[in-house]
Amino acid sequence: MAAPIWLWAFGFSLALIPSAFGNLEGDALYTLRKSLADPDNVLQSWDPNLVNPCTWFHVTCNQDSRVTRVDLGNSNLSGHLVPEIGKLEHLQYLELYKNNIQGTIPAELGNLKKLISLDLYNNNISGTIPRSLGKLKSLVFLRLNDNKLTGPIPRELIGVSTLKVVDVSNNDLCGTIPTSGPFEHIPLNNFEKNPRLEGPELLGLASYDTNCS
Predict the structure, then answer these.
(1) What CA–CA distances, in Å, run from 161 to 89, 157, 202?
(2) Taking the CB of residue 118, how many other CB atoms lie within 10 A of it?
(3) Longest C-alpha distance within the chain, in Å?
(4) How do beta strands 126-128 and 148-151 pair?
(5) Alpha-carbon torsion 123, 33, 112, 133, what sign?
(6) What's domain 5-208's architecture?
């Protein structure tokens, strides 16, 4: 006996759901690809005509075909990051270290609620550390060292209790080094080579909130 048409249609719609996610995340990753110069063709497999980005090199997905890792460290890439990265809702690891990426860190990275590791070290990233990173309540590793970042360390990061590793050394940050919350156990050498960064100071948030630019 043939299945009712409505049941067949329902099953068909469910089958399309991973593809819809794949298209959305694939579009976001392809936007990133277009913003990057890739002389070694490490992104050659990032083909927008493929429904699911889980087939692309340097991309890892979970069992639901949602992107969980982007591994592009030390890949000789240049260009800039794009706000669309914030659409990768299940992303846990964003590895873009040791490239020549310029521009700023998009505030939309604060939408990556499952992010565990943000590794952007050894690039040429400028601008400030977005306050929105304080919304990353699963973040364990934040490595932004060896860039050209300016401004203060956002006070919002004090509320990220999961943080175990923070390295912002060798930038041009200013203000004072936070010492409360997860920062209580961060080694001071992870803040060095920021000539305008002061501290640590133990006078509370009032002193930490020093204006700088």
Answers:
(1) 20, 8, 19
(2) 23
(3) 77
(4) parallel
(5) positive
(6) Alpha-Beta Horseshoe (3.80)
* Greater pLDDT, 11 or 39: 39
CA end-to-end span of the chain? 73
With beta carbons less than 8 A apart as the criterion, state whether 84 and 70 touch: no
Number of Cα atoms under 13 Å in the Cβ half of residue 175: 23
Contact 68, 62 (CB under 8 A): yes
Average pLDDT over every residue of 17-30: 73
Do the beta carbons of residue 21 and residue 66 sit within 8 Å?
yes
Q: Encoding tokens for residue 53? A: 């980005």
> What is d(CA 112, CA 109) in angstroms, rounded to the nearest whole number?
6
Tokens of 66: 């949602």
Instruction: Tell whether pTM > 0.90.
Output: no
The H-or-E segment that residue 36 falls in is: strand 36-37
| 4 — pLDDT class (breaks 50, 70, 90) | low
Phi, psi of 117 (to 5 degrees): -135, 125
Higher pLDDT, 9 or 152: 152
Order the strands of the 148-151 sheet from edge to edge: 126-128, 148-151, 172-176, 196-198
